[in-house]
Amino acid sequence: MQQLASKKEKEKMERMQGEVDLLEQPSPLNDKERLMIQDSWSKVYEHCDDAGVAILVRLFVNFPSSKQFFSQFKQIEEPEELERSAQLRRHARRVMNAINTLVENLDNPDTMASVLQQVGKAHALRHKVEPVYFKILSGVILEVLAEVFPEVVTAEVGAAWTKLLATVYSRIKTVYEEVGWPKLSTSTG
Fold first, then answer.
1. Where is the Globin domain (predicted)?
2. Domains of the chain: total
3. In-domain check, residue 44
4. CA distance 46 to 48
5. DSSP secondary structure of the chain
6. pTM value surpassing 0.90
7. How far apart, in whole angstroms, are the C-alpha atoms of residue 111 and residue 147?
8. Minimal CA–CA distance to 134: which of 62, 49, 59?
9. Does residue 11 fall inside a structural domain?
């Protein structure tokens, strides 16, 4: 398995995980939280492509080791060039559509579980992505949404999103365990 790029990057990864770590075993979303997430997401999803690209570019710039799983653009260093990559844009769209499916089905735990099962299995078995990258991505999503949509993602809305993304990570981690992921780290995940 490939190692993280550097000690500096590992420290940055650990800092980004802080908010999600607070809810390692998150409680279910309440009705108000579900509505806040759905309302805020409707405004974010109007800018699906730009928001998705911003999230992935931030991930790859701040955590360059995350590019190792993407042969099409893992050698691209410049953020502007990443933004122009057709492959990155396609993957960003897939990420945003997966989040959209989750948000649309916050009241349907079976659909949510099915989506997370598919995503988790594909990333564990086919793509061999370390599960910690889902936690890192959660932190990046929170950061970008709060910066790009500050009028929508208030502190209260951000707390609801933190809870949702912590739940997503927890369920993804469970899928990894179910498929026998051999490298689940107890120190980071």
1. 28-177
2. 1
3. yes
4. 6
5. -PPPS-HHHHHHHHHHTHHHHTTSSPPPP-HHHHHHHHHHHHHHHTTHHHHHHHHHHHHHHH-GGGGGG-TTTTT---HHHHHH-HHHHHHHHHHHHHHHHHHHTTT-HHHHHHHHHHHHHIIIIIS---THHHHHHHHHHHHHHHHH-TTTS-HHHHHHHHHHHHHHHHHHHHHHHHTT-TT--TTT-
6. no
7. 30
8. 59
9. no
Amino acid 99: pLDDT: 97
Question: Is residue 15, in this structure, part of any structural domain at all?
Answer: no
Of the candidates 75, 185, 188, 68, the one whose C-alpha atom is nearest the C-alpha of residue 129 is 68
The whole-number pLDDT of residue 73 equals: 85
Q: Comparing 39-48, 64-73, 110-119, 133-142, which segment has the lowest mean pLDDT?
A: 64-73
Contact present, 26 and 170 (Cβ < 8 Å): yes
| Amino acid sitting at position 89 | R
Q: What's the CA gap between 101 and 147, in Å, rounded?
A: 23
Structural domain of residue 152, as residue ranges? Answer: 30-178
